[in-house]
């Protein structure tokens, strides 16, 4: 929070936030998420959020990108990303069954992104 507050003292047009939830308790992450939405809405500051917790990122975002091995493999609104089968399965925990890594490794599932 101190780093975000310090950054806001400069009245930025763009605020870069990297791994907001890393190592923090879920209650703290929820409070920081609310704060970032308030900053975006009240101050009109553009946010660029890099986050591995897809649920947190999609709750804040107006638009999102899914990157795999440094490549953008899917993009869209939070609603579109939440509705995508692979995003639900691999990032939001919405898979129907548990599968081993060998069944879903990168090269087998990469073609599913484009379509």
Summarize the structure.
The chain is an alpha+beta fold and 115 residues long.
Structure description:
It is a single chain. The chain is of the alpha+beta class and 115 residues long. Helices cover 49% and strands 18% of the residues. The chain is built from seven helices and four strands, in the order H-E-H-E-H-E-E-H-H-H-H. It has helices spanning 2-8, 26-43, 54-60, 78-83, 85-90, 101-104, 106-113, and strands at residues 14-18, 46-50, 64-68, 71-76. The strands form two sheets. It has a two-stranded parallel sheet with strand order 1-2. It has a two-stranded antiparallel sheet with strand order 3-4. Strand 3 (64-68) and strand 4 form a beta hairpin. The mean pLDDT is 84.
What is the tally of helical segments? 7
Report on the biggest sheet. Answer: 2 strands, parallel
Oligomeric nature of the chains: single chain
Number of strands: 4
Please give the radius of gyration in angstroms.
Answer: 16 Å
Overall, the morphology is elongated
End-to-end gap? 40 Å
Mean pLDDT: 84
Low-pLDDT windows of residues: none
Indicate the proportion of strand residues: 15-25%
Structural class: alpha+beta
Widest β-sheet, arrangement of strands: 1-2
Q: What's the SSE pattern? A: HEHEHEEHHHH
Helix content: 40-55%
How is this fold's topology laid out?
Elements: H1 2-8, E1 14-18, H2 26-43, E2 46-50, H3 54-60, E3 64-68, E4 71-76, H4 78-83, H5 85-90, H6 101-104, H7 106-113
Parallel strand pairs: 1-2
Antiparallel strand pairs: 3-4
